Task: structure prediction
Amino acid sequence: MTGIVKQFPGVRALDGVDLTVRAGEVHCLLGQNGAGKSTLIKVLAGAHQPDEGEIRWQGEVTTLPTPVAALRMGVATMYQELDLIPGLSVADNIFLGHERAKYGFTRDRQARKEATALLKRLGHPEIPPDREVGDLSAAGQQLVSMARALAHDAKLIVMDEPTAALAADEVNNLFRVVADLTAEGVAVVYISHRLEEIREIGHRVTVIKDGKTVARDLTADTPTSELVALMSGKRVETVYPVREESTVDESKEVLKVEKLGRDNEFADVNFTVHAGEILGIAGLVGAGRSEILETIFGARKADQGTVSVNGKQLRNGDVRSAVDAGVGLAPEERKSQALLMDMTVAQNVTLASMRSYSSFGFTDRAKELKDSRAKLEDLDLRPSDPRRNISTLSGGNQQKAVVARWLVHGCRVLLLDEPTRGVDVGARAELYRLIRELAADGVALVLVSSEMPEVLGLADRVLVVRDGRVIHEAPADELTEADVLDMVMEGSAA
Amino acid sequence: MPETPAPRANRGFSIDFRLASLFGVLVLLVIIGTITSDNFFTGSNLDTVLRLAAPSGVVAVGMTFVIIAAGIDLSVGSVIGLASVWMTTLATQSYGLVVMVICGLAVGLGAGLINGILVAYGRMVAFIATLAMYISAKGLAEFLSNKQTQVVRDQDFLAFFQGSFLGVPALVWILAIVVAAGWVLLNRTTFGRRTFAIGGNPEATRLAGINVKRHTAMVYGIAGLTAGLAAVMLVARTTAGSSTHGQFYELDAIAAVVIGGTVLTGGRGTMVGTLIGVLIFTVISNIFTQNNLSTDIQNISKGVIIVIAVLLQFRSSRARSNT
Amino acid sequence: MPETPAPRANRGFSIDFRLASLFGVLVLLVIIGTITSDNFFTGSNLDTVLRLAAPSGVVAVGMTFVIIAAGIDLSVGSVIGLASVWMTTLATQSYGLVVMVICGLAVGLGAGLINGILVAYGRMVAFIATLAMYISAKGLAEFLSNKQTQVVRDQDFLAFFQGSFLGVPALVWILAIVVAAGWVLLNRTTFGRRTFAIGGNPEATRLAGINVKRHTAMVYGIAGLTAGLAAVMLVARTTAGSSTHGQFYELDAIAAVVIGGTVLTGGRGTMVGTLIGVLIFTVISNIFTQNNLSTDIQNISKGVIIVIAVLLQFRSSRARSNT
Amino acid sequence: TSNEPPASASNNNAGANVAGGQGENAQPGKMVTIGFSAPAADHGWIAAITKNAKAQVEKFKADVTLKATEGTNDSSQQIAQVETLINQKVDVLVILPMDGKQLTVVGQRAMDAGIPVINLDRIFDTPLAYRTWIGGDNYRMGVNAGTYIAAEMKKKNIANPIIGEVAGIDSLPLTQDRSRGFKDALAKAGFRVGPRVAAEFTVETGERQTANLLQAAPKLDALWNHDDDQGIGVMAAINTANRKEFLMVGGAGSKNMIDKIKADTDVIKATVLYSPSMSSSAIALARLLGQAKGMGDLAEHEIPASITTYSAVVTKENADQYADVAFDS
Ligand SMILES: Nc1ncnc2c1ncn2[C@@H]1O[C@H](COP(=O)(O)OP(=O)(O)OP(=O)(O)O)[C@@H](O)[C@H]1O
Ligand SMILES: Nc1ncnc2c1ncn2[C@@H]1O[C@H](COP(=O)(O)OP(=O)(O)OP(=O)(O)O)[C@@H](O)[C@H]1O
Ligand SMILES: [Mg+2]
Ligand SMILES: [Mg+2]
Result:
């Protein structure tokens, strides 16, 4: 691909990008949030039509007017936004568009068999092929997406942040499959914000910034600092946070969770969080961490136990009571659980605190704009114009806006569920700094993340969760990544 | 909630449970009918109920496809009127049975495809595009018929469609065949699978290499075709074509489909539920008449029954998504 | 690219562009009316158009809220009938003007709240819940009125609502006030913001600590209230209450709202667009009347005009999402 | 008024019957613009009303022009249409209101503006709102149907007959009046109305409701159907159910039904007229009003204030006599 330009109204998403991929290699595409990676691969998949530029396939110039054209040519794509149909079964999703059928009649048994084979190849023979995809966890869905790409017998597979929703062991499975594919001569375009993954499987790296290629044909062992500098134009020393002085105020117990449980999800969860403390919750995908957070927040009704904030018990299953008590939640699924895509950034930011922006029911729009602009500048959200539509922001910036919502509200407890999912290195570092600052301001934080170094580097204390039970609790500096991994996998609590 | 732990078995159970409770409502109505009126549970009354249900049922089958594909078709009622008028003009009738039927089906299909093209290629909101078709088709039907009822002179036509095979009226056979064909098309073919996919997530379906626009146009074509067939059936039942045929069929069909468990936002639905939904509405009307209730009382109770039926039905699925 | 241009301005521009082109359609219609008929652009005819638009316009304001909150209300038409009947019973009329108006508004509000409660707390699909209300309210209206037209004897009532202030008919004042109030409520208050939020993403709104259920119930209450007010206006206009009042007002209102640019899936919409939508439909009818067109031709052309208006309007926004 | 059957019935408005105009009145006079407003012609009878009016204007084209607004079942819309006609300053208005009570106010407004109003059929609330009313008598239509049926039952010596009724749109006052007349007439004979359903003046609802009614009543002695338009559906349902044991009476008097009555092969034995020819008469009256003429045969100088057409009972015996007023449903 050479000189690709793609314009959206008001945005020049691609501004002359070049990308060359050779057979049998894993080509990594790096760039900040909003650099244009997803747009580029959508052009490659026939989903977007480029305004300028040329695509060559095996030496010949081609055009890709539709997704079918790309699929026929041999390009299969795993999109970043999950591109599955929640109401259809796993097998139906895998073979959508090239159904196993005879004379138009579907051959479901054959489809199920082949689906099982594909899932087995991905190390997940236990996922039933006739289960509805909407019932699977995000990780399960990611696997289906992957199986679908494999089902196409493609010569080039594009993976847009495939590991964003995966835990460590799943990532290893994926890498094994990628290695198999490249060994067969299939080329892979790989997009991820986790640089260590690129080191592990990447062969060559292309870096794009602001819709332009800024570096190509780098080797996978290019030093992190150099990559980050290329991506962001500035230096970031380390990707993950390093431990800092604790800001815990032991005297102030802010959040207290007692004997909390929900049937079939988790049971007997007890912990307290002090002012200025960051409590990390580690565990595998599916361990029930999101459920715990959502139950504390009142978004789910607890079957047992209580939650209190500053000694006052929250009403069970009532988000309002939690919000009033100063609890905020940045949920796991930004798009479906937190963002109002049709609204401006300011409107998203003030959603939870409309009462303080209204007099007699009328919104004070000037104050709304002023306050959200101030917060956005605090958080270094870019672009910081609060009147922009939030759908035009990159993922990392959207995440900041969600955090800003609770800061504007003045929350004392902030629950963060996978706050850095899909967020680029530069923005991550800023989020880490932000989380620290919040703690320093006396906010009690609970942090759920699938990335161990993140939990260990940020949290003061860590809970390890497995199968809905807390199996271990310890100060973060007494734990190593290996310990925690052992615990979550084997359940051999120390 | 993003990741509710509801294993497939459980969800399958919940769909079956809904269908079963819907079926329960139908059985309950039949029991009420039998108790309140001696003439309810007789062969000829059941014949009548089924014959009345037949055209609505056929329309509801087409509507099921449209709604599963996350669309809506408000035009079916007046397309029925248009097709019935077109197929019974003196000119058409002069060619006899076969041409009449083909004409009815073709008019329905044509109107449906126009809807589909406006929605899929013209990117019009389905509600508005089919509302426009509703108004225009009604006008055209009145224009063609000169606002008169056109009586069918072709005796073959009447003999064929008013007759019975094996003791079952022709109209009921047609209903049975259409529902069966609709079920197979929806659940056992690539076409049906893609219809679900489009309703569930059109963008993802497009990215999977499916021609979403063409498929959408075809789905509306199917709805139009069933409207055309319903017109043929109504002409047979009433021995006449008229621009007033099919009034309110769109609302009845949509209500039956939705009561039957198909979701208006698309991506999910069952053909069996639609059939039960249609039968429930027909049986309710029949019971009212059997008991000589006045229209006002009929209407009040009908609304209340719908609410109760739906609330009963959702009781099960509610527990599931309870937060 | 991330920093540079401002898509917000762009989006604003595109909404404005749609409104402008919609307004263009209205102006075009007015020009056509003026050319084809000498009596079109006269004060008394414009009065007639506006007075006719007034009740539909009021209903459409309530419908705008419901649709922005991703709901639908099919019941408004028959709620109008019910409210008109209730407020004109002899018993109610004996208490005079104020009680009559309060009664009409209260019936509308009550019916709307029942809709809202069924949808929000009973978790019924809005389409079905309001369809049930549609049927029941119609039955109740017929029952209360004994299917008779109830003439208004209260002269104060007629004098007030048929009168004019500053040369503008009372009904037009009411329309203007309701549209203005609706605009403020939608765009300048917390209530409006929350309505948009619920329509855009109910789950996210719930997780922001907003009582989505109560708010939804209130939105349907507003729609019911506007239906009640429209009933008062229709009673003033026709000097009578009747169960046939308000027929098809739900379809007209939905069509006007959607033509006006409010999205049926919720989260997006404008009050000004709704007003223009209502005016477009009223002006079309008036032009037809002025030119003595027969109903069949009227209907055929109305459908075609809707299609053209929508296609014109979307031409701009299409380029935007074109991929 | 008199009807002038064959000659005018053969013009391009086949089936429409027009009034003659006699003596001096037949001569063209001063130009008159007549405004005409009726409900939506979604039904044979009302379509015939509009058609007859147009046919009548055709007959008087030398001195009459018509501004016909056709079309709506929404009273407030019809009010607006009449207002439009008033604004257009027509000479005379002919109004068939969707609902007389609701259109009264605008009728009165027209009269106040100096435009004489011919109120066609559904009557306004006050005589102040019209110059002349001409219309049928729904109550008497029911009475005549009931009386005919009662007589037939007596003739057949049926002591406790089961008498069914297929009404039209139940929420319209005219349906109420018809049903009331029917009930009263039967009561006078000591009978009562048995199973009753209401259709919606359409063929399809006629068929549907009758099919249900026939199941609810395994045996019937008589059946009155309010409206011959829906009658096609009613007959279809009866034939499908293969029922012959009762006699049926229709309403309004469509050509179709009168032919069937004459042929005497179906259950229908009679129909009570409610003829749309009244609209031809209304146009004729409007013209005379506009030209300030009286009615030729009457001694009055003025057009009378009220004319009620008669709901004759058409049977096999007198069917030929009424063939010309029959309308195409
Ligand atoms: N359909 C669209 N309409 C308008 N703008 C768009 C559209 N899709 C993408 N953009 C804009 O194009 C730019 C590039 O987006 P893209 O999704 O390609 O970034 P990315 O590199 O994949 O970021 P991330 O790492 O967050 O996934 C962004 O500014 C984005 O807002
Ligand atoms: N790989 C999988 N395959 C099938 N089902 C799964 C899988 N992972 C999780 N689930 C189901 O999802 C449920 C909830 O898991 P969920 O992902 O919410 O937990 P979590 O600990 O919050 O994970 P995350 O790390 O994504 O936040 C589990 O109880 C399990 O039934
Ligand atoms: Mg991306
Ligand atoms: Mg989770």
Observations:
- The two ends of chain A are 53 Å apart (CA to CA).
